[in-house]
Amino acid sequence: MSILVGKDTRVLIQGLGKTGQFHTDKAIAYGTQMVGAVHPSRAGTTSHFEGETDHSGVPGRDDTYFVDLPVFATVREAVAATGANASVVYVPPPFAADAIMEAGAAGLELVVAITEGVPVADMIKAKRYLADKPTRLVGPNCPGVITPGECKMGIMPGYIHERGRIGVVSRSGTLTYEAVYQLTLRGLGQTTAVGIGGDPVNGTNFVEMLQMFEDDPETEGVIMIGEIGGTAEEEAAEFVATRMTKPVAGFIAGTSAPAGKRMGHAGAIVSGGKGTAVAKIEAMEGAGIVLAETPSDMGEAMARALG
Amino acid sequence: MKIHEYQAKQLMAERGIPVPKGRVATTVDEAVAAVRPLIEESGNPVVVLKSQIHAGGRGKGTFEEHPDLRGVNVITAGIGGGIGAAEDAVRKLAFKMLGSTLVTVQTGPEGKVVNRLYVEQGIDIARELYLAVLLDRAASRNIVMASSEGGVEIEKVAEETPEMILKEEIDPAISLAAFQAHSLAYGLEMGEEVTKRFMGFVKALDLLATELDTDLIEINPLVVTTDGQVMALDGKMAFDDNALFRHPEIVAMRDETEEDPAELEAKKTGLNYIKLEGTIGCLVNGAGLAMATMDTIKHVGGEPANFLDVGGGADEEQVTTAFQIITRDPNVKGIFVNIFGGIMRCDVIATGIVAAVKTVGLSVPLVVRLEGTNVEQGKQIIRDSGLDVVAADSLKDGAEKIVELVR
């Protein structure tokens, strides 16, 4: 088992621009079932992908791949033609929230929004729109979701992953890679690694992810990587203390960040004394989460938490 | 993006939201010239002279050059002495305030130079309240926040007497409903006439927030005047940077003198840079990793000189600019490059570093940690360059090495 994505996930890409094209190629090389693209101006054509298989991904495939991906005008049409149940969004910021809503309207189970720089107001609306849809949104402004050896939806480098025992959830992309790589080197591996994104309004929060990992029989422990801004980590700590039986390790970025400055991520800001690293670290330690002192110690912290 | 109080008030006034009348001045003469029309128009002999900087706490803040002078001054000389006396008082004050450095709780000890003054009509205040429209991250919606405790720090109110803060969540499909505006007025114990005006005020503010993609509108204080008007005595607005592409009129309000020039240059190149006080320059990909790199430097006994995220797709030119910005800071005694290449390929970064060092020159130690996509090619490029670079195996290893080298 794993969570969110697996070998049966049939993925559409929304926004087949340069970035979308590049990562679709990487996803196919990894062995992800990419079944179609939505890109209105190129509807009716196909997009060709070929290259050398990434053997760190889905096992037992040929050494090369040749794929002609059909391109559709709308998500609904793409779903009808391909049986897709998930989509990954690379649509540019002004149109990204609209693409997310379109995926929701088509009834997809999962939408992973990679796009960085989506206006907050657009996300507030998109989230409201999805409230009565069956769709789970991950992101935006995130690296995506990967279940090693089965499905890679997003921009993370596939080869640092290895199928294993640990769930990873993070607000930061590159810190997810740090954690994942350390787990791989230690032979702990990952069940699923999820970037929930660095924006103040995102589709899925820590608590929802922790619940999924808690319910996943294959996951034996979770690494949770937070950062300054908001109170999502404090809420997650409360959940860990009261509802989780599995060991959790963690790290909080931004101990040295000055107040009132946005640290790259739109959501990473200490304002009005709220969202400090200290408050988050205290809440997490209080909940029994084993914290890594530096990002280089995340794998070690997980090993300690597992006992 | 932040704007000045006078600009925020202008945006409110354009949308029919009541604000005191005022004029902005960048010179002493302009400030003096504003006095007569303001007094004649309002009939109130009192004027207020307000420093315009992008930081709060101006009323209590004082000037570095004039420790007895506050950032906001109420001029009452006009009450007995007429317009001429008010003008004289404004002349004296404006002369001291303009070009001086105002230090408030929000500016930090270095303060901010006052380049603009706002001359405003005096208002007869019956009540001071607090009103804000801001994002509630946990709810993923905007909320209206109001309190009867106006004119003081709202964070303090929230901590000490949270029951004094009223909140209404705004459904984006409906916007603020009338009953919600009414419920706030009721909670603030307003009479019938004031309730009506307040409801109009808060509804208009919600519409403004939606129309202009504000991150925050804070009115502290919102006042009820002695004749029952509801008015924004102060106004603070910040806008969602991600939405600026659809608001050129807001972008035009940007006051670049309020921003750090290096941060501004970085932003224009697509880099995220924030200057800090330490000695170790950092160049990192990814915001979370960039923060964590600073944390780790501090953890092993050093002080970071900056936050710098080159993003996911930096090219050679961006890396060169990043190096230029870092090395220009005279405090920088060493540089730590920390890259976990996902999309960002290590060979591209390595080529960028080599080119940058050749262009910019390098007089301080450089530690480079590369991991991820094409890491071997990246390391090879740096080895072949003949540059004096210390290689690191992990983030912590690199942080320890650079801290040791600058010691």
CATH T-level topology of the largest domain in chain B? Rossmann fold
Strands of the widest sheet of chain A, in order across it, are 3-4-2-1-5-6-7
The total tally of domains of chain A equals 2
Rg from Cα of chain A:
19 Å
* General form of chain B: elongated
Largest sheet of chain B: 6 strands, antiparallel
Radius of gyration of chain B, whole Å: 26 Å
CATH class of the largest domain in chain B: Alpha Beta
Q: State the CATH topology of the largest domain in chain A.
A: Rossmann fold
- Do you know the CATH architecture of the largest domain in chain A? 3-Layer(aba) Sandwich
Q: Please, what is the average pLDDT of chain B?
A: 93
Globally, the shape of chain A reads globular
Q: What would you give as the CATH superfamily of the largest domain in chain B?
A: Succinyl-CoA synthetase domains
Structural class of chain A: alpha/beta
What report would you give on this structure?
The complex is a heterodimer of chains A (307) and B (407). Chain A is 32% helix and 24% strand. Chain A has 307 residues and is an alpha/beta fold. In chain A, helix 5 links the parallel strand 10 and strand 11. In chain A, the strands form two sheets. In chain A, strands 3-4-2-1-5-6-7 form a seven-stranded mixed beta sheet, with helices on both faces. Chain A has a seven-stranded mixed beta sheet with strand order 9-8-11-10-12-13-14, sandwiched between helices. Chain B has three domains: 108 residues, Dna Ligase, domain 1 (2-Layer Sandwich); 127 residues, ATP-grasp fold, B domain (D-amino Acid Aminotransferase, Chain A, domain 1), CATH 3.30.470.20; 148 residues, Rossmann fold (3-Layer(aba) Sandwich). Helix content of chain B is 39%, strand content 25%. In chain B, helix 5 packs across helix 6 and helix 11 runs parallel beside helix 12. The model of chain B has no long low-confidence stretch (mean pLDDT 93). At the A-B interface, helix 4 and helix 5 of A face helix 4, helix 9 and helix 13 of B.
